[in-house]
Amino acid sequence: MTIQVYNVLTRKIEPFIPVTEGKVNMYVCGPTVYDDSHIGHAKTYVSFDVIARYLRFRGFDVLYVQNITDVGHMLDTGEDRVLRRARQLSARPMQVVETYTRGYFEDMDALNVIRPDISPRASGHVPEQIAMVETLIEKGFAYEVDGSVYFDVTSFPEYGKLSGRRLEEQEEGSREAVRTEKRHPADFALWKKAEPEHILRWSSPWGEGFPGWHVECSAMAAKYLGQTFDIHGGGIDNIFPHNECEIAQSEAAHGEPFARYWLLAGTLTLEGIKMSKSLGNTLTLKDALEKWRPEAIRTFILSSHYSNPIDFSDAAVEAAYKG
After folding, report:
1. What is the pLDDT of residue 72?
2. What DSSP string describes 7-21?
3. Exposure check for the chain: N or C terminus, fewer CB within 10 A?
4. pTM assigned to the model
5. What span, in angstroms and rounded, lies between the C-alpha atoms of 265 and 49?
């Protein structure tokens, strides 16, 4: 029986045919480790745990890579999430990273999520990211301005093919502060110049700085899975700009297709409302696991198709527990 999947890239249900017969290379965007994991993380990673388990059950040799983002994930203000958390806790950035990375894996272990085969960290793959940025500059897809490097979205005509967004419709400032030095408002950072107060910094051909958020996944996926691999997974909320930027920079750098099948997990709301720290309605996995058995949480998550949105509530989890 042929496996059928809904490919977000083509917006079609397609037969799943891997690049290499009998083998599946799968990359899933992992967490940014600046705080405790929440129930939304469970929705994504329980879903891909089952996908990986099923593919192995069907006899495939699965290589599952899931990154750890510990640098470069910027707030809309242009501030690194890890650095902000470190200041709040009066801790070193890598203390924050270690604390929440361990916490994330503890939570996933409790939910019986099998650990990925490889969990590469962004901070441990800066040379690979710099090399990719150099390639993009050489090929004319990126440009440097005062120590920062940006991807020129107008140089990649297919930009927007995953999310369906047209370039002229995109607003300024997606996930990063608008920089007047950019040629186009939608151009995204591949490398950021480190200001004097910025702690996380590396030497580069453009001066001391740090990688942008999007380039880490492209660099690490290529390193461990090859320039073209089978499945790219993650949450639907990252389809733009993150996944869109991954495709653009990867295909521009290598001249090959990036991921063949895009499987994205649907969103999770908390009693009908999107989780937000500003609203005070975030439910951490540690708190959830104190209240409910992990089997009940897994059953609730798997009660609908992985790509569908679900609403987390006491009543829904109680129903899953009874089931």
Report:
1. 83
2. ETTTTEEEE---SBT
3. N
4. 0.94
5. 12
- Pairing relation of β-strands 142-145 and 148-151? antiparallel
CA-based max dimension of the chain: 60
**Adjacency order of strands within the sheet including 148-151:** 142-145, 148-151, 188-193, 209-211
Residues 31/40, Cβ–Cβ less than 8 Å: no
Question: Within the chain, how many helices (H) and strands (E) appear?
Answer: 9, 13
User: What single letter denotes the amino acid at residue 25?
Assistant: N
Q: Which residues of 32-61 are buried (b: 16+ CB within 10 A; e: fewer)?
A: bbbbbbbbbbbbbbbbbbbbbeebeeeebe
Question: Which residues are bridge partners to 268 per DSSP?
Answer: 310
Q: What is the pLDDT of residues 162-218, one digit of tens each?
A: 999 988 766 544 444 455 789 999 999 999 999 888 888 999 999 999 999 999 999
Q: For the segment 272-311, what is each residue's pLDDT rounded down to a tens digit?
A: 888 876 667 889 999 999 999 999 999 999 999 999 999 9
- The Cα-based distances of 293 to 108, 119, 285 in angstroms read 13, 26, 11
| Cα 57–Cα 221–Cα 16 angle in degrees, nearest 5 | 40
